[in-house]
Amino acid sequence: MASSRIKYLVIAAVIGVFGYFVLSQRDIDKHFSEIPGHVANFTAINIDGGKTTYQEQKGKVTLITLSASWCPACMAEIPMLKKLHQEYNSQGFKILMVSEDDNVKIAAKFKKKQELPWTVIHWNYDLMNNLGNPGVLPVTYLVNELDSIVQINSGIFDEGAMNRAIRKLLR
Fold first, then answer.
1. 3-state class of 140 per DSSP?
2. Among the four residues 47, 51, 60, 75, which has the most C-beta atoms within 10 Å?
3. ∠ at Cα 141 (135, 143), nearest 5°?
4. What is the rounded distance in angstroms from the CA atom of residue 138 to the CA atom of residue 143?
5. Residue 40 phi, psi dihedral angles, 5° rounding
6. Which pLDDT does position 16 carry in this prediction?
7. What CATH number should be reported for the domain holding residue 53?
8. CA-CA distance, 91 to 126, in Å (whole number)?
9. Domain total for the chain?
10. Contact call for residues 147 and 39 (beta carbons, < 8 A)
11. For 67, which DSSP code?
12. pLDDT tier for residue 37 given thresholds of 50, 70 and 90
């Protein structure tokens, strides 16, 4: 009986967290110190080794996603990100995941466990300043080939809307 109550409390808590992230999308301004319109080049640690830059990793269309292994909403986005990667990677679409985990080792374990086929980099202050220092996770930035940010999602993104936006940019 007690385990049933705990199970329902956990389910209610998870729904509450997801609800918060979904509703937070409506008030995107309050999560950023400044909403960026463009992605300037930045350097970060590639969790597979060495350093890399945004310019080395970007595609014709790039989805930059801020994520962390401890974030339930970030975990909920992983299947959608994998679908987007599978659907559009051959057309020049790239995902660049910025891990906000505490260290590179945690991020590397997360990438391996989740079998993420895209580049994962570890956050740093210059990179975060470049992206407006959002105070929420997950955040996604849809970026065109000219490095202009055409869409920002705070919280879990809408898969259908993201598909439409990516298709439009890839034309």
1. strand
2. 47
3. 150
4. 16
5. -80, 155
6. 46
7. 3.40.30.10
8. 30
9. 1
10. yes
11. E
12. confident
In degrees to the nearest 10, what's the CA dihedral of 153, 156, 160, 164? 20
C-alpha 45/C-alpha 87 separation (Å) is 27
- Which among 83, 71, 146 is positioned nearest to 98, based on CA atoms? 71
pLDDT of 25 above 60? no
Structure tokens at 169: 């940019």
Q: What is the pLDDT of residue 23?
A: 41
Dihedral sign (CA 88, 61, 24, 14): positive
The domain in which residue 100 lies consists of 2-170
CA–CA separation, 84 and 82 (whole Å):
5
CB contact set of 86 (below 8 Å; sequence gap of 6+)? none
- Burial class of residue 129 in the structure, from the number of CB atoms within 10 Å of its CB (0-12 exposed, 13-18 middle, 19+ buried): middle
- Shortest CA distance to 169 belongs to which of 116, 94, 66, 78? 94
pLDDT (average), residues 158-163: 96
Task: Give the pLDDT confidence score for residue 51 in this predicted structure.
Answer: 97
The continuous run of DSSP H or E covering 16 comes out as helix 2-24
